[in-house]
Amino acid sequence: MSERKQQVSRRQFLNYTLTGVGGFMGAAMLAPMVRMAVDPVLQPKKEGDFVAVTEVSKLTKEPQRFNFKIEQVDAWYTSEVTKAAWVYKKENDEIVALSPICKHLGCVVNWEGGQGHEDRFYCPCHGGLYEKNGENVPGTPPLAPLDSYKTKVKDGTLYLGEAVPNMEV
Amino acid sequence: MQWNTEDMNMYIHSKEYVDTCVIPLLPVSFNAEDDKLVSMAFQHEFLTVFTNEIEKQFKGRIFLSPSYTYSPSAEIELEMNRLNKWCEEAEAQGFNHILLFTMDPKWKKQERKLDGSLVWLPAGQVDSLQSEEAQKYVQSQIDQVTELIMAYWQE
Question: Where is the Rieske domain (chain A) (predicted)?
Fold first, then answer.
């Protein structure tokens, strides 16, 4: 036997094998921990469920109120919650769905509720007013425009998603 | 607004806007016949749904208090004093309108001696609040009461 073929001694061989196997074992233990640590980063951001609300053909240029149900998950229980939206079509047929929750203190606003509020949303609690596009009328209590729902149309049905701050105004 | 920390924090920062207090009145007792037990449970269920819906409509102006519970066999004079004490405290807190919701005709008879405005709802014949028919019925009642409340505000 030449010296060259003796390059790996018994001691070295054992060292290599143990390091290799030990390394695998260590990796096997660490991998799930690492996976868990970075999990929130890997999780795709949940895109908020869309709920079927009405047929697009029923929409008019005048805001109409539609109710729909969503499943709300709180820390302690899951419940079915009824939500509402004021929906109308703009002149260019673009669909607008506004949340009826007043940005002042959270009452429910009505389209043309009461006299002298034509073509506006009116909050019965403290007289807050909003234009048709959801913009708050200066001089009334609300300080922000009504939130708008994300909209999606599929096969002639209108789907609404989560309510987001109104970007139109 | 409701009796929880989140709404309470909102309330203490906007007291000047919240001028109406809603208190449901509920009889509670375990010492009763079976049909009375059912009736009391129904009152609780119905008034909870009812007042929650009203609170949702007028969240920014109405504070929904936890229910005032009383024993159906207690002496009415004593209960009235205790209830008026609640109303007094609410008034001192700045609530100009105190609405007492009940389905118990006992209170109706004492209405004039109460410090709050009594809203008496007849019990009706609803077996289950879950059916669609019942929902429509209750919703129409709620709509009428919201109009009543707005009328109170306009005074």
Answer: 87-160
